[in-house]
Amino acid sequence: MRRPRRRLASTCVGTVTAGLLATGAALAAPGEGAARGSRASDTAMGAYLDYGPNGVARIAQLSRWLGGKEIRVGHTYLPGDVWPAIEGRVSFLEDWAKWRRAKDDRMFVLNVPMQARNEERVPDREVARLIRAGAQGKYDVHFERLAERLVELGVPDTVIVLGWEMNGITYTHRCAPDPENWKAYWRRIVRTMRSVPGQDFRFDFAPNRGTDAIGWTKCYPGDDVVDIIGMDSYDQEPGQDFDDQITQPYGLRHHVDFAADHGKEISYPEWGLFRRGDNAEYVRRMLQWIEQHEPLYHTITDYCPHGVWQCKQNPAASKVFRAAMTPVPDPVVPTPVVPTPVVPTPVVPTPVVPTPVVPTPQVPTPQVPTPQVPTPQVPTPQVPTPAVPTPAVPTPVVPTPVVPTPQVPTPQVPTPEVPVPVPTPVVPTPSPVAPSPAVPVPVPSPEVPVPASPAPSGSPSPGQSPAPTPPAPRPPAPPLNSRQWCVPLNFGEWLSKMVGTQSVCFKVDWPF
Predict the structure, then answer these.
(1) How far apart (Å, rounded) are the C-alpha atoms in residues 448 and 496?
(2) pLDDT in tens, 296-332
């Protein structure tokens, strides 16, 4: 089918490119609204939005417009002007590959021209020559490079729509000038691309709906080189209405039946409004058809005059499309609460079985006498401590004038015999003291008259001779073996004159 000028760099055709997941149930009768959300479907659905990065970016916008419907198909076209473009040496492939790799259930659909100068209205005779050259393998290298490029980009499962609308009159890759060589050329391309390691391509044979220049079944290259049988279907003749589009030769019904006969899945890579303008009925019926036959994927061509989102000249058709594609949550059917009957559990008393008390035998613990081991008494030798008598050394006391300080003897301590000093006048000692620890009261000695003017040092005055000092009378010696001992006290010549002769007596009880 002849198309308006496509918006691909210098040569490309505008067509479908993004995917939307179709939902639904079995179709309503023709003319009724499309069912929405009535049953799940594996069909992916979208729209061609642009061939390059803009097309990738618009997928998310379309999804929001459709109330969050998931887009599963990315669809674009390779330019058909020169062979390097057909080899995939275009930068926008990287954008589409990145989008595809982001989710496992996405699908990348790529329309691939079979000839360079693909929209230059090359005459049939030249087209025939080019087809024969391709059938002989002249262009194999270009398709091998394309396959390698797609594998490198990480999209080895790309759906290749090869030589689309081959039954029409528009493209240089059309079939009518030489159908047999055209089929041979298709087969070479598919086998060349499948020979590249890592590939998992699927090839979509997609003619125009209707007879056009040649019945499309005459161009079918064989089941071994075709994976999907598609169809591009726009709202135009032949046919006055949608029913005619279904029943016409090589129409929608023929397409579905032919694919079923060959065991192939179907697709609708391009569909949309065209000759009849804003035809909401066509959009409604096409969506019903898609929902009924569940193609692998479908993409609406969304630029004017075909589109329903970017093209604002079709508001009625846009409203129908949006209402059909916007997901509607399934109504929440409340689960009836069935009360569970409470069956009382009979209380069976548990009999109390008395536990017999088994007396624990008392085993007497034998008393094992502990042997008494006598501790040997080691006598400690009594070492007599010699009693060393401490001699009583009289401490001379300097008495204040007239008051002599008597020396108190130490009681009960035998004093060894001390040599008697040079005899001095001894004052007679009072009677012996009884052997009592009491301190004897000293007897005052008779006052000794003090000379009128004694010299301070006790020496004679100048010009006078010292008077001789009369010797002090000795105390009477104690009787032999007496128990009383008296020790004379010598206070010096001067003091003795004042206090008289004193002595200290003590009595010792001897053991004999």
Answers:
(1) 9
(2) 999 999 999 999 999 999 999 999 999 999 987 767 7
Tell me the per-residue pLDDT of 338-373, one tens digit each, with 9 for 90 and over: 777 676 676 666 766 667 666 666 666 666 566 565
Going by their DSSP bridges, the two strands 484-489 and 502-507 should be labelled as: antiparallel
Distance CA 51, CA 96 (A): 9
Angle formed at CA 257 by CA 256 and CA 262, multiple of 5 degrees: 100
Quickly count: other Cβ atoms within 10 Å of residue 226's Cβ.
Answer: 21
β-pairing, 107-112 with 502-507? unpaired
Q: In this structure, what are the phi and psi dihedrals at residue 501, rounded to the nearest 5 degrees?
A: -80, 130
How many alpha carbons lie under 13 Å from residue 18 in its C-beta half-sphere?
26
Cβ atoms of 206 and 265 closer than 8 Å: no
Give the separation between CA 390 and CA 266, rounded to whole angstroms. 143
Buried b (16+ CB within 10 A) or exposed e, 253-265: ebbbebbeeeebb
Q: Are 106 and 74 in contact (CB under 8 A)?
A: yes
Q: What structural domains does the chain harbor? A: 44-325 (3.20.20.80), 421-433+473-512 (no CATH)
- DSSP summary character for residue 67: T
Pairing of strands 233-234, 265-272: parallel
Return the CA Rg of the chain: 72
Q: Which residues of 298-327 are buried (b: 16+ CB within 10 A; e: fewer)?
A: bbbbbbebbbbbbbeebeebbebbbbbbee
How many Cβ atoms sit within 10 Å of the Cβ of residue 26? Answer: 10
Instruction: State the residue for tokens 């089941």.
Output: 223
Whole-model pTM: value is 0.60
